[in-house]
Amino acid sequence: MIQIFNDNSGILLEGFTFTLYSSVIALFFSLLIGTLFAIFQISTNKVIRLLASAYVEFFRNIPLLIIVMFFYVVVPLYWFQIDGFTAGTIGLTIYTSAFIAETIRAGILSVPKGQMEAGLSTGFTYSQTMRYIVLPQAVKIVIPPLGNQFINLVKNSSVLAMVAGLDLMYQGDLIASTTFNTFDTYILIGLLYLIITLPLTYLMAHIERRLASNE
Amino acid sequence: MNFVEALSWVNIRFLLDGLLVTVEVAVLSIIFSFIIGSLLGLVRYLKIPVASKLVGLLIDLIRNLPLLLIIFFTYFALPQIGIRLDIFWSAIAAMTIFESAMLSEIIRAGLNSVPKGQTEAGLSTGLTYSQTLLYLIIPQAFKAMVPPILSQFISLIKDTSLAIIISLPEITHNAKIIYGQNTNYVIPMFAAMALLYFSICFALSRVVKRLKLGVQM
Prior knowledge:
The structure holds two protein chains of two kinds.
Chain A: H1 2-41, H2 46-60, H3 64-78, H4 84-110, H5 113-121, H6 126-156, H7 168-179, H8 182-214
Chain B: H1 3-6, H2 9-45, H3 51-63, H4 67-77, H5 87-112, H6 116-124, H7 129-159, H8 171-181, H9 186-216
Helix pairs in contact in B: 2-3, 2-5, 2-8, 3-5, 4-5, 5-7, 6-7, 7-9, 8-9
């Protein structure tokens, strides 16, 4: 296993970086899109609410792989060229944003209604109340589930391997098929994933306990 | 794109064959995972010295790996140490390994959600600890576990699509074969795939929502 690592440390490190890149980029954009859709979902406008719910329900209930393959197979066929890394990251973003929207929506709804009423009655506008009173309280509730979404995101980024996305899984697969030592290679790849996900898992568990004991 | 030709009866039947494999793999995996996950979850709940910690570590390791890696592992790496499974069973083995870890966490959380007073009450009425567990704790915990287990089953159905990598003839794999014949079939096949997965997963997610409301009441 150490031999495999030494022989391929270059491309393994590259794969590791691509996995991280893809996850961080997807996290950033899915947070943005997810928050937006969460707010749309509780909007007072019925059409916006319906459209946002349709987006969230649709992408939550189809496999990530299909979204990624859509960008990798269908988009180049009818519209424009796109490489595996970009297709994969866009797919990840869309898929995760639907889950994040749901998480944030639940977080906002868990803030008691009286808070919104109190904000409005002190003369704040709806968006001011949302921004200064409701959202800060919701953030505390959504941090643990969002952390879990990020861990899932890192694991899910392995689908990039299926569209030649140059990520860790892709490079691992290449190494396995050139060295023929599949057993050691996949264990090595697993360890590299754990370097990212395991500390995050323990950190989230810690934060969750801290938040719970503060209440 | 050509919907009429792409969705000919032959092609639809081929997709439905894929659906059958998807459902078979998902159902068998969730049953095996439930059995193994219950055992692991119980070991963690009972706080048996050393064993609980070891099981906990194992679960954390597996939970934090990509399922895709585990699928690769069961199909390509296990033969190297003499364990040869065909495509169907390596897919099930991989899903079972991954989902057992996920379910054990759900089961442990379910057991922990039963108030401690219930155990004390059971013991004080003269039941033994295992009787208390079997007749008082587990039935109550089970009610809390059903919605998250069903949610996990939804992700499992979606995740079976990953087994395309080992050519498991499920929905995604069969759709790919169909659209590989003719580029006019690509969009109809993506639409068909999305519709199949969506209708199953969305229906199940409604059930989960219903059950969750029931549990809270």
